[in-house]
Specification:
Elements (H helix, E strand, L loop, with lengths): L1 H22 L3 E6 L2 E5 L5 E5 L3 E6 L2 E4 H8 L4 E5 L3 H13 L3 E5 L2 H10 L5 E5 L7 H10 L8 E5 L4 H10 L3 E4 L4 H11 L1
Parallel strand pairs: 6-7, 6-8, 8-9, 9-10
Antiparallel strand pairs: 1-4, 2-3, 4-5
Helix pairs in contact: 4-5
Length: 194
């Protein structure tokens, strides 16, 4: 029975591999479930599911999940800061859809507290207008800190005010995005940081 299951799985894999290489270019994730019969006692047998083996087939080349994980190692950890829960949810969704890890906070003060606890932030995206501490003030504090000054900071605002934009860029902001933020804005900014 074991040989039949193995042969069936291998045949299916090779068939899909041939199809993939013939039409190539696409990405296909294949779950293979190997069921192995083994005796659990002298009188009975049970089915056990082995872990799913996932393969990515791209243009006929098989790449295992370990390589996928290596590629995922290039993901960014982004700290998103906005007092608007709606805007925060939108920017977090855009970043997560680009496969980045996102931590969200609702104020500049909380962002600084988090940065003290979480040193592995690769980029900060913050709203300009927030109570207590504006995004510009947060930018200044980050750039004044010897421990944080290398973290790229992106400012967002719904107001297109050239003086404000220039002031933020002169202070060291990586970019200034106008709301509503689009997926192309996120891609552009993240590609510079990676």
């Amino acid at each position: 029975m074991l040989e039949i299951c193995f042969f069936y799985s291998l045949s299916l894999f090779l068939f899909i591999l041939v199809l993939s290489s013939r039409w190539g270019g696409g990405v296909l994730y294949l779950p293979f479930v190997s069921q192995i019969l083994y005796p659990s006692s002298a009188s009975s047998r049970r089915l056990r599911l082995l872990p799913w083996l996932l393969f990515r087939i791209e243009g006929g080349i098989v790449m295992s999940l370990s390589r996928e994980r290596e590629e995922a190692g290039r993901e960014l950890h982004v700290l998103a800061v906005d007092d608007s829960s709606v805007d925060l949810a939108v920017i977090a969704m855009l970043l997560r859809s680009s496969k980045h890890r996102v931590t969200t906070v609702d104020s500049g003060k909380r962002a600084l507290e988090l940065l003290d606890l979480e040193p592995n932030v690769n980029m900060i995206i913050t709203d300009y207008w927030m109570p207590e501490m504006t995004g510009y003030d947060l930018l200044k504090k980050i750039k004044e800190s010897s421990a944080l000054k290398e973290i790229p900071v992106v400012i967002m605002s719904s107001e297109n005010v050239p003086n404000r934009i220039n002031r933020c860029l002169e202070e060291g902001a990586e970019d200034f995005l106008l709301k509503p933020v689009r997926p192309s804005d996120v891609s552009r900014v993240c590609s510079r940081v990676i």
